[in-house]
Amino acid sequence: MTVVIVGAGLAGASAAEALRERGYDGEVVVFGVEEHLPYERPPLSKAVLLGDKEVDSAYVHDDAWWREHDVDIRPGVEVQSIDLAARRVVTSAGEQAYDWLVLATGSEPRHLRMADDAPTPVHYLRTVEDSLALKNALRAGNRVAIVGAGWIGLEVAAAARAAGAEVTVHETADLPLLAVLGPEVAQHFADLHRSHGVDLRLGSAVTADDLAEADLVVVGIGAAPRTVLAEAAGLEVDDGVLVDELLRTSDDHVLAIGDIASEQHPVLGRRVRVEHWDNAIGQGKAAAATIIGAAEPYDRVPYFFTDQYDLGMEYWGHVGPDGYDRVVTRGDFTGAFRAWWVRDDTVVAAMQANDWDASDEMRASVGQAPPSE
Ligand SMILES: Cc1cc2nc3c(=O)[nH]c(=O)nc-3n(C[C@H](O)[C@H](O)[C@H](O)COP(=O)(O)OP(=O)(O)OC[C@H]3O[C@@H](n4cnc5c(N)ncnc54)[C@H](O)[C@@H]3O)c2cc1C
After folding, report:
1. Block mean pLDDT (10 aa), the chain, length 373
2. For ligand 1, is residue 125 a contact (CB within 6 Å)?
3. Are strands 337-343 and 326-331 parallel, antiparallel or unpaired?
4. Are 128 and 257 contained in the same domain?
């Protein structure tokens, strides 16, 4: 039997590793466009960008590990099309038949045309090469314009300040991270960045003049799932590749995992597509279980972490600004802090900042009654 995995990112690597862990002894072939073995992206906007860690630390496993586990990783090979009826993919290096196909093609940064057309050098951040290029460009006194106050924009802002750059962040919403956290907690992120000298310009769109005034521009306005292959093959796609709780697509022999998968989530009771590290690992494992016939529904509550300046934070849940009726908080955001988003007297999301002993308790609080105010 042959399992073919399209995408040698974290989700694809996790699926391959889990197949071997679960005793699957057939062939595993992983195709990846990038000229790298699978690596984790979170350090690219944190430790690697700050110069605290080398790129090598981001690799999931070294070459020897993949060889010992008989996983055939093909870096630099693109899957160009899928023939669902023949169960075969066409790649830039030839054809490959499969019994199971796992799509793990991830996502790519959304482009801002105005920035691409501007004379100022523009950076996006997705790959090792992007991270190293940006790290080289961040210098003391440089004027850095960041477009988008999402997770990546804010992490880059922190790294740019650490490098001594003058940083301006442009965001159309009234607060950074507003759509994820809601105003109560988002305000703390605005205060954090302003206290570190970031010129945070909220509630207005960036202009061509803003970009022209900068020495370099970083665009962090979100990512789009790479669904082109799936769509061309005729799989059901709507924002992401539609999958059930076992990660099965509309074709019986094809699974989709990681950033591209729009899962009918058994606990949340609706479709969610999660662009996070933990989801890529967990769905990779669940896909392996589906392939070996263990059928373990992927029901983890979405989880995310970030590091900015001295703040380390974890968040469990999937809510958005309209999904809760109040927020209960404890502590001080610049010290140890906890927050619970509550709807109908049930915790729908929870976070801790700089309070690492609280992780298990906060994760477990989702779905429970909130702490008293
Ligand atoms: C800079 C950065 C920082 C992040 N920080 C955090 C964080 O702090 N916390 C967190 O939870 N999440 C974070 N994330 C998100 C997290 O990294 C992603 O959710 C995760 O990488 C998704 O894994 P994936 O395998 O689905 O996709 P990807 O990591 O995007 O991997 C997909 C791979 O598939 C390849 N591919 C695509 N199409 C083809 C094809 N046709 N043929 C062959 N190969 C193909 C791509 O080249 C890519 O290498 C961050 C992301 C970035 C970019």
Report:
1. 98 98 98 98 97 96 98 98 98 98 98 94 98 97 97 98 98 96 96 98 96 97 98 98 98 98 92 96 98 96 95 92 92 92 96 95 95 82
2. yes
3. antiparallel
4. no
**What amino acid is encoded at 223 in this protein?**
A
257 CB burial (10 A radius; 0-12, 13-18, 19+): buried
Instruction: Specify the pLDDT at position 110.
Output: 98
The answer, yes or no, to whether any atom of ligand 1 lies below 6 A from the CB of 306, is yes
Phi-psi region of 230 (alpha: psi -120 to 50; beta: other; left: phi over 0): alpha
CB atoms within 10 A of CB 4: 25
Nearest to 311 by CA among 130, 168, 190, 183: 190
Q: Token digits for 155? A: 């992490």
Q: Are 324 and 349 in contact (CB under 8 A)?
A: yes
- Note the pTM of the prediction, 2 decimals: 0.97
For residue 104 and ligand 1, the question of a CB distance below 6 A is answered with: yes
How high is the pLDDT of residue 254?
98
SS (H, E, C) 192-213: HHHHCCCEEEECCCCCHHHHHH
Domain contains 322: yes
- Flag whether 371 is in a domain: no
Q: Is the CB of 304 under 6 A from ligand 1?
A: yes
Structural domain of 207: 111-219
Q: How many domains does the chain have?
A: 3
Distances (CA, A) of 310 to 196, 313, 335: 11, 10, 9
Protein residue with its CA nearest to atom 4 in ligand 1: 42
CATH code of the domain in which 199 resides = 3.50.50.60
Q: What is the pLDDT of residue 320?
A: 76
Q: What is the reported pLDDT for 334?
A: 82
The residues near 43 (Cβ < 8 Å, ≥ 6 apart) are 49, 53, 57, 58
What is the signed CA dihedral for 293, 295, 298, 299, rounded to 10 degrees?
-160
Residue-by-residue DSSP string for 78-131: -EEEEETTTTEEEETTEEEE-SEEEE---EEEPP-HHHHHSSS-EE--SSHHHH
Q: Using CA atoms, how far apart are residues 314 and 222, in angstroms rounded to an integer?
A: 20
